[in-house]
C-alpha cells in the first residue's frame, strides 16, 4: 500500500495539466498566427473568405531549357504547354485523411528564368484557403512536374480536395521524374533519392539541411507553441527540392535532347534511355541509343556504395532485401532471360540482349539471330537461352527448320554441360525438349519417307531418335523428390547414367 494520499495524487495530476491549460488560454488567434509566421519566413499573408495563407516568393534563377528539343525525349510534354514544378511538405508519409500538406512549393518558367512560390498553412482551419490558392497557380493546360508525385504528392492533394468537397484542379498531364531517373541513371547511383540526384548528377550540395523525418514534428511544434523559427529550414528545404526539379529537366535536355551531346553520354545512361524509348514503342530511336552505347568506351567503375542484393556476399538475414527461407523446393527459374535490376551495371551482354530483342521487334530477324549467335559464343547461363532464341527465330521467322534444329541441339549440349556441374534449369530443359520434338515432327512431315518404309514408321523412328538423344529432357520429368529430416520437400540430385546404359 503506497503512503501517498489521494489528495497528493490529485495535486500532482493538476500540476501536470496546468501548463497545457495555460498554453491553451494563451493560444494566438489565427490572424496573429499567420502574421507571426509571415514575419518569421519573410512572406506575405494572403487573406480571403476561406482563411489566411502565407505566401513566400524566393529569388528567381536563370535555368534555360530548350522545350522544342526536349519534347522528342520519351515521356516529355509538348513544347507549348506550361510546366509547373510541385513539391509538398506534409505531416506524415500516408496519403489518407489524417495527413496534411502544410507547405506546397511551386515553380514555373518565365522565359529563361525560373520563378517560385511557396504556400504555407498557418493553421489547420485555413486549409481551404491554401487549396483555393493552389488551384489558382495550376493552369488548365499545364503539366505538373514532380518527383514521386504520382504516388504521393498529387494523390495526397487530391484527398485533401475531396475532404474539402472540392474537385482537384484540372491539368493536361503529369511528368514524374522518378521513373526516368531510375531507368536511365539508377545503374550508377547508390539510390534514387532526390538528394542523391543532386550530388551525383547535378553537382549540387546542401548545407545545414533539415532531415525529412524532422519536418512533421517541427510544424506540429509550431502549432503548439507558435515558434516559427524552425520552419525557415523547412522552407529552404522545399525551395531547393522544387529548384532541383528544374535543374534535372535542364540536365536531361542538355545531356540527351542534344544529339551531339548524347553521343558523349555514359553508355549505361544511353542503354537506359533506349529502354525508355522502347517503352513508348519507338524502337528505331531505342536501337540508335543502343548502337551508340555499344560503340562508346566502358563506364568508369562506380565509386558510390550500392545497396546489397540477394547475390552479394554481405547479404544477411536481418537485411530487408534478404530472401526468407521457409523450406520446401527452391523457386523455379524463369524460362526466359530475366530482366536485370535497375541498379545493375550495364554490361555488354545486357546491351546485346536488348539489341537482339529490338531487332526482332523491328522485323530484322536475320540481324537479331546474328546477335543471339554472338551471345551464344560467350559463356554463362545466357548461352543456352541464346541458342533457344536462335531456334525460335529460325523456326518461326526465317523458315529454316534444319537451322532451328541445329540451334536446338546446340542449346541441348550446353544444358548437358551445365547439368554435369549441377546447374539445372528444369523449365528451360522441358521447353527445349518439346521444341526439339516438334522440330523433328515438322522435318519428318516435310521430308518424304522412303518407299520401302511406311510413313507412320518413319515418324515413329524420328520420334524415338529424338527421345533417345534427349536424355536430359526425359530425366527432367523424373526429378526425384525426397523427404528431408525436417519434413520439407527438397530436390534430390540425380546422377544420370550414360545414354547407352538407358537403352
SSE layout:
Blueprint: H1 6-25, H2 30-41, E1 44-48, E2 51-56, E3 61-62, H3 67-70, E4 83-90, E5 101-110, E6 113-120, H4 127-137, E7 143-146, H5 149-163, E8 173-176, H6 177-184, H7 194-202, H8 215-225, H9 231-257, H10 259-262, H11 267-279, H12 283-295, H13 348-361, H14 365-376, H15 382-396, H16 401-420, H17 426-446, H18 455-469, H19 471-476, E9 481-483, E10 489-491, H20 499-502
Walk me through what this model shows.
By secondary structure, the protein is of the alpha+beta class. Helix content is 50%, strand content 11%. Strands 1, 2, 3, 4, 5, 6, 7 and 8 form an eight-stranded mixed sheet that branches. Helix 16 runs antiparallel to helix 17. The protein is elongated and about 100 Å long. The C terminus is likely disordered.
Total DSSP E strands:
10
How far is the N terminus from the C terminus?
A: 90 Å
Q: Unreliable segments (pLDDT under 50, ≥5 consecutive)?
A: 304-313, 455-503
Q: Classify the beta-strand content into a percent band.
A: 5-15%
How much helicity do the residues have? 40-55%
**Structural class by secondary-structure content:** alpha+beta
Radius of gyration: 32 Å
Quickly count the helices: 20
**H/E element order:** HHEEEHEEEHEHEHHHHHHHHHHHHHHEEH
Which geometry do the CA atoms define?
A: elongated
